[in-house]
Amino acid sequence: MRILLTGSSGFIGGRLREALQAAGHEPICAGRRPDGSGCRFVAADFAGPPPRWSEHLDGVDAVVNTVGIFRETPGARFADLHVAGPVALFEACAAAGVRRVVQLSALGADDEAESGFHRSKHAADRRLLALPLDACVVMPSLVFGEGGASSAAFLTWASLPVLPLPAGGRQAIQPVHVDEVVAALVVLIEAPPGRWRGRRIALVGPEPTTLAAYLQGLRAGLGLAPARTVTVPAPLMAAVAAAGTGLLDRDAWRMLQRGNTADAQDLTTLIGGPPRPVAAFVPHELAPALRTKAEAGWTVPLLRLALATLWLVTAWVSLFVFPRDESLALLARSGVPEALRLPALFGAAGLDAVFGVATLWPGRHRRLWALQAALVLGYSAVIGVALPEFWAHPYGPLTKNLPILALLVLLWARDR
Q1: pLDDT tens string 253-309
Q2: CA 242 to chain centre
Q3: Rounded to two decimals, what is the model's pTM?
Q4: Residue of 285, 334, 6, 14 whose CA lies nearest to 147
Q5: Rounded Cα gap, residues 320 and 228, in angstroms
Q6: CA distance 413 to 311
Q7: C-alpha closest to that of 228 among 296, 173, 276, 160
């Protein structure tokens, strides 16, 4: 079959493309840029003007839309990516007589939806099922799989020494593995005409669980012992979600509170057996690598926070706490000319403050870590020679630079 696939570079779309190719189909990858898979590419950006789909649908047997975003950005809005873009494609499919259309939606995209994510998905689903097409809507629950952004976030959460649970973690969810979502999509694409027409198909795990049990299950898969938990009160969680700075923003918190469960029968029918439970989500052979990555998800930010605090506190103490006369005296003993001592003090403190702020800035910072290491080495060399008594100081102001340098080497290596 010749299949037009949108979102072919995404978490689910990329796996679906590989599965279709393995099954002998010919996927046509539609997206903003080629995904590097070598499949025939069609330039199509749902956030911009729609392409002339009629030029790309000739000879196409099926269309699968997997485009989706969980949060809006200035250049990516639900109204464009979830509604206007897909609807234009669906209507072009109806005009071109495409045999099969499958829409990847989300469990909870229904008449009671409260979040912008769910409402926008539901609008496109409703329009698709109203068209004269052999179409169906696939509605997965929380999807787990290696390489997924939300999966990585949940693994990091699960690997914490103590698990913070919003409102006690009693929310009902029913996670499903990405491999079973992809397998179900392939069956739907290949199904006999009319077999699933007009259906909204829930793709969920074998049975409902709670957020708390899901996190403990992921811990077990990573090879970690059960963790202690702490309840985050619902009002506090709502305030954190309103700030939109973590895994759960306002919409995600609403969706979690509502619950996300359904009957697993459709998925069982599609894949020929019950879906795997949470306990089988993490492959045994991948557990050590995934555990290391998950723990780095919170240990590295913690180390960066500690390093930033060190630089910022040092700057504050240098400027406002430690007696300035004593600082200038130390600079004098280090060989700094009198005219340059005050500028040197302010300059060093300012550089410390800049390093502290830059350390907190998101992204990779190999040059920053190298510059910080060079400065620490420079400070250590000057002080070690000009002020040798600090080698024997009981607080170890020079020897403490060794773990700081080791931390900078670690951050430099990880940012590769």
Answers
A1: 888 888 889 999 999 999 999 999 999 999 999 999 999 999 999 999 999 999 999
A2: 19
A3: 0.88
A4: 14
A5: 41
A6: 20
A7: 160
Q: Contacts from 356-362 at CB under 8 Å and sequence distance 24+?
A: 356/308, 356/309, 356/310, 356/311, 356/312, 356/315, 357/308, 357/312, 359/304, 359/307, 359/308, 359/311, 360/304, 360/305, 360/308
Q: Hey, which residues does 172 pair with through a beta bridge?
A: 210
Distance, in Å, from the CA atom of 100 to the CA atom of 190, rounded to the nearest integer, reads 9
**Cβ contact 28:3 at 8 Å:** yes
SS3 at position 288: helix
Burial 127-140 (b: 16+ CB within 10 A, else e): ebbeeebbbbbbbb
Give me the helices (H) in 106-164, please.
Answer: 116-130, 149-158
Which tokens sit at 413?
């290596």
Compute the Cα dihedral for 391, 392, 395, 400 and give only its sign.
positive
pLDDT digits (tens, 9 = 90+) for 140-168: 999 999 989 899 999 999 999 999 999 99
Rounded to the nearest 10 degrees, the angle between the axes of helix 85-96 and helix 116-130 is: 10
Helix (H, G, I), strand (E, B) or coil at 166: strand
Amino acid at 312: L
Per DSSP bridges, beta strands 40-43 and 26-31 are parallel
Upper half-sphere CA count for residue 24 (Cβ side, 13 Å) = 1
In the chain, where the domains are located: 2-282, 297-414
Res 241: pLDDT: 84
98, containing H or E segment: none
Distance CA 384, CA 390 (A): 7
What superfamily would CATH give domain 2-282? Answer: NAD(P)-binding Rossmann-like Domain (3.40.50.720)
